[in-house]
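Input:
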Amino acid sequence: MWELNKYRLFQLNPWNIVLIYLVLGFLWILFSDRFLEQLFDDPATLTRLQTTKGWFYVFVTGLLLLVLLLRYTARITRMRDDFVYRFDLYRSLLEQGNQVVLQVDDHQNFSYTNVAVKDILGYDEDEFRCMDDFEAIIHQDDLDRFQEIRVLCDADVRDHHPVKQQVRMRHKNGSWRWFRMILTDKRGFEHIQSRLLLIRDIHEETTLFEQLRESKMRFEHLFQDAPVGYHSFGPDFTFIDINKSELNLLGCSREEVIGKKTWGDLVAPEDLPTFEQHKKDLLENGYVENLQYSIVRKDGTRRSVILNARAFFDEQDRLLYTLGNVVDMTDKLLAEKELNEAYRRLNYHIQNTPLGFVEWNDHFRVTEWSRESEQMFGWSKAEVQGKAPEEWPIVHEEDSELINEQMTGMLAGKELRNKISNRNYTKDGTILHCEWYNSALLDEKGRLVSIISLVHDVTERVRAQVEIRKLNVSLEQKVRERTRELEMANRELESFAYSVSHDLRAPLRGIDGFSQALVEQYAEKLDQRGLQYLNRVRSATQRMGQLIDDLLSLSRITRKELQEEPVDLGAISTEILASFRDKEPGRQADFEVARNLTATGDASLLGIMMQNLLDNAWKYTSTRERTYIEVGVTDLEGKRTMFVRDNGVGFNMKYHDKLFIPFQRLHTQDDFPGTGIGLATVQRIIGRHGGSIRAESKEDKGSVFYFFLPDKSV
Amino acid sequence: MEVSNDTMDRHILLVEDNPDDVDLTLMALEKSNIMNEVRVARDGEEALQMLLGRDGEPPSRLPAVVLLDLNMPRVNGLEVLREIRSNERIRRLPVVILTSSGEEQDIVRGYDLGANSYIRKPVDFENFVSAVKNLGLYWLVLNEPGV
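Output:
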C-alpha cells in the first residue's frame, strides 16, 4: 500500500500559503507604518523609509515564496522519482510474474492484461483482452465457480473480500490446465477504481497434490489393510498409531489403544521380563527382530506373534517414536503342532500295523523298515538299511524276475501302485508267502520320491488255500459220486413207481377178477360166510388199488416240472364246489369263495391241491345238516395267506402234526373213507412252490387250512 | 346180444403176457357175450409173428382189433405198435392199448406211436368187464376197419 501521508506538505497547501501571506501582509501594513511614525516625524524621511520598507517587504516575501516553492518542487520531484521507481518495480513484477493479471472495470471489461498471458495461456495481450466469449475457454465443469467470480465484477457490487476459485482453462493450443483465479477487492482512488483478476497456473501443484494424495491413500491402504500388523509407539511406548490388522489381532478398537496402552499391557505375564529386555535392546541398537511373544487379546484368548521394531531418535538421542510390525503365528504354530502330531501318529501306526512296512528310496533301497518287518523277516532295520532287494537274500530266486518286472515300471514313475504276490525268505531261510502292496510317492513334478510297501504274510492262507483246493477236488469227486448214486436212486424210484403202477395192479386185478368168478360161478358150492369172505377179499383188493393210485399221484407230484403262471384259485374252487353239488344234489351246502384269490404257480398242481383241500372239506362236512365251506384270503404275520374253512367234524390238534404225513389218518375208514394221501399231496405241492400250510381245528368245530404261496409276480 | 355173421368173422388179437389177465379178459369178453374168436399172443414177438406171418408167409386174416399190453418181456407193447405202424400192410390196424399203467409217459408215447385208444385196466373186475364190453362192442361192431 502506498503511504500517501508521507507526501503531505506539512499541512500546507496553496490556499494556506495565500492566507498566511494575506494575514502577514495586512499585519505588516497596519503596524509597520505606525511603528515608523512613532520613531520619525520627518515626512520626507518617513516617505523614504516607507518606500524602503515596501521594497524590503516585497524582497522578504519574495524570498520566502522562493524558499517555499523550491522546497515544494524538490519534494514533488522526489515524490515523482519514487513513484516512477515504484511503478517500474511493480510493473516489472506484474509483467514478469507467473500469473496473468487482468484489470476488470465496472463493465466487466478487461482494461489491462499483462504479457504473462502469452506464456500462460498462449494469447497476445490484446487478443486476450478483447476476447468475445471468455467463458469458452473455461472448463464446462468449472463454469459455476467462474460465475461466482464474475457476478462480483459488477458495478453495483461495492465492496467484497478477495475471492479465490480453482478452474480449468483452455490454453490456446487446446490443452486444459488447472488455474487459480483470485479477484481482488476494488482498489484505487475514487475515480480510477478497478478490480484485479489474477490467474495463476496451479496445474503442476494440483497434479502433484493429487499424486501425493493418491500416494498417501495407497500408503494408508497398505498400512491399514496389510495382513501384517503395523504400529508406532511414542517415547513412552504407548501406541500412537496402529493398523486394522493389528487391531483385529488384539481384538481391541483403535480408541482403546491409542495413547492408552503399551505393548507391555498386551503381552502375556510370563513374557513381561523378556519385553523389558527387548525394550533395552531396541533403545540400544535402534532395532529388534523376530521377537516372539504370547499376547492376550481383549477376550482373553492368546495368540503367538513375531515382532520386528525400529526406533527413531532426535539429535539428542532421545527416542521420538518406534515403528513395528507384528505377524500372527498362532495358526502356523498350531499347524506345525498338528503336523508333528500327525507325523507322530502316522509313525505309530507304521510301527504298530500288523503289516510289515518298508519304504524304499528312488533307487529302490530301504529307507524305512518297521518293527513288524523285523519280526516278519528276522532282519533288523540296521541290517537292511540302504540295501536293494537283490543285495540280501530276501527274495525267492524264482520270483526275483517277477519282482524286477513289476517294480521297473513303478521306479520309472509309470505305475503308481501295484500288488505283488511272491515268496520271500526269512533270515533263517524259511519261505514266506507274502503280498506286497506297493505305492509310489511322486513330487509335484511327477518324479518318484519313494515307494512304500505294506507286506502281508499270507503263508498260512496260502497253505490253507492249498488244503482247501485239495479238499475241493475230493469234495467234487464225492459230489459226482453222490450225484451218480442219487441219479441211480431216482431212476430206481422211477422204475419202482412204474412197477407199482403196472405190476402191482395186475395181480390185484387177478385176485378181484377170480374172486368175482368164484362168486358168480361157484356160489352154490360156498356158504354165506364163504361168499362174504370173497366180497371182503374184493373190497380189500380195491382199496389196495386205490392206495397204489394215490401213492403214484403223490410221487408224480414230486417229479413233475413246475410251470409257473398266475392261477385263479377262486375260479378253480368255484368249479370244484359246483361239481360237488352235481354229484350230491341233495346235500344242503353253503359255499363262499372270496375274490382276488390269484396265486403264482403250476396250474395243474394247484388244481390238484384245491381239489384235495375241498374234497376233504366236503367229506368231513358230510355228517352236517348243512355244509359250510369258505375259501378266502387273510393277512397272517404280514403274509397274504389263503384258507379253506369248513364246519366239519374237525380234528384234535394233538394230532395235527400227523395230518400231512402220507397214509396217516385221523379218522377211521368206517367214519370217513380215505387213503391218507390227500393232505400229504397238498403239502408237497405247497412245498414245491416254496410256501407253507398249517391247520387249525377243534373236534366237532370245523377246521381251517391256511396256506401261503410266495408271490413271485413282484 | 345179437352179432351178425359178418362181425363174427372178425377176430381179436390179445397181446398179453400175464395168463391171469388173459383169462380175465376172456372171462370179461364171455360175460359181455362177445363170441368172436380171440387169438392170444404171449409177448410182443409172438404178436408180430402173428400179424406179419412166419417165414415170410403173410397170415390169411388180420384181426379186427389188437388189444395190446405194454409191459411184456422181449418185445414190449410200444415196440409192437411202432412195428405195426411202420409196416405198409398192417399200419391201419386198430390198436387199443389195454394196460395196468396209468403213467402219463406211457399214454403220451402210446398215442404218439399211433394207438387208436388207451384203456387202463381197472382193478375192480366189474369195472373191467364193463370196459371190455364197451371195447368189443365198439371195435367189433361199430367201427369200420380200414383194411
